[in-house]
Write a structure and sequence with these properties.
The protein has 8 helices and no strands. It is mainly α and 230 residues long. The protein is elongated and about 75 Å long.
Length: 230
């Protein structure tokens, strides 16, 4: 008999979230920084210095923040698994009844739930409780280093796009070109993220464009006010 295999996109949630967040933040923060400095009347050298500094600082901040936050999740998961391991060693019968009760709550009849729980306990007791009681699986398990690298890498990639515009656009077109170009980059990112996650494109694209345009508009306005005051 030929088995039907399915490819579910939920397995992409971990890396996709970090990748979209990093790239989006890279585009928005770097473009906003460049627009703010440009609106103040600074020259191209100042724009590039500000952009590169924002890229490096942002990438390191994303990596550190993601590592710390995901490490906290990993510590919690490890503590829960250690507690579950101790409970299995101390009272395996109670843990088997607990597992059966979980299956009953999901709609399995009590007799079948008892049989399934017995078989799961014989096969992999800790893995069964991790999955069905704690909701910890290989797909959802915290991976701090991977999350940090993904966030830093995608932030750098995103930040490089407005930085490239700052290096190549004529100064007379810098504000308009940077704003339009960065919003288009955001739209492309939203479309790629939606496609990778199997979602419709419209809402993600509109969402990233709106918030990106708002952030860039506010920063450019502040830069204009500061430049005028100075």
């Amino acid at each position: 008999m030929r088995l039907h295999t399915e490819s579910h996109l939920v397995a992409r949630i971990g890396w996709l979230r970090a990748a979209v967040l990093g790239a989006n933040d890279g585009i928005v923060s770097t473009a906003s920084l460049i627009l703010g400095v440009a609106a103040s009347g600074a020259d191209r050298q100042a724009l590039l210095v500000a952009g590169v500094a924002g890229l490096v600082a942002g990438a390191m901040s994303m990596a550190a923040g993601e590592y710390v936050s995901v490490s906290s999740q990993a510590d919690t998961e490890a503590a829960d698994l250690a507690r579950e391991r101790a409970e299995l060693a101390a009272d395996p019968e109670h843990e088997q009844r607990e597992l059966a009760a979980i299956y009953v709550a999901r709609g399995v009849d009590p007799a079948t739930a008892d049989v399934v729980a017995s078989q799961m306990m014989a096969h992999d007791p800790l893995g069964s409780h991790a999955r069905d009681e704690l909701h910890i699986t290989d797909t959802t398990a915290a991976r701090p280093v991977l999350a940090a690298l993904a966030s830093a890498g995608t932030f750098t990639g995103g930040a490089a796009l407005p930085l490239l515009l700052a290096a190549t656009l004529p100064m007379a077109w810098m504000l308009a070109g940077q704003a339009v170009g960065s919003i288009l980059f955001l739209a492309l990112l939203g479309a790629i993220g939606a496609r990778a996650g199997g979602a419709a494109v419209g809402k993600p694209v509109a969402r990233v464009m709106f918030w990106g345009a708002l952030a860039m508009g506010l920063t450019a306005g502040i830069g204009k006010l500061v430049g005028t005051a100075v």
